Amino acid sequence: MKFIINKKLAIQLISIACVTLIITPVCNAVVKTDDIKTESKKKISGINEKIEKFNPTNGGTEYWALLVAVGVYLNHPDQNRPSMLEAVDNLHEVLLDSPIWSEDHIHVLKGEEATMRNLIRELIWLILKEDKNDMSLVYITTHGYPLKNEDGTPIDFPPKDEDDGADEALIMYEGFEYWYGNIWDDLLNFFLSLLQSQGVCLIIDSCFSGGFNDDPMFTGALFDGYTAESFSQGFIKEVGSQGRVVLMSCGEDEVSWGSIFSGCLTQGFWGVADLFGNGDGINSAEEAFNYAEPRVKFLSGGYQCPTMLDLYPGEYPVTFS
Ligand SMILES: [Ca+2]
Ligand SMILES: [Ca+2]
Ligand SMILES: [Ca+2]
Ligand SMILES: [Ca+2]
Question: What's the 33 CA to ligand 4 centre distance in angstroms?
Answer without folding.
Answer: 15
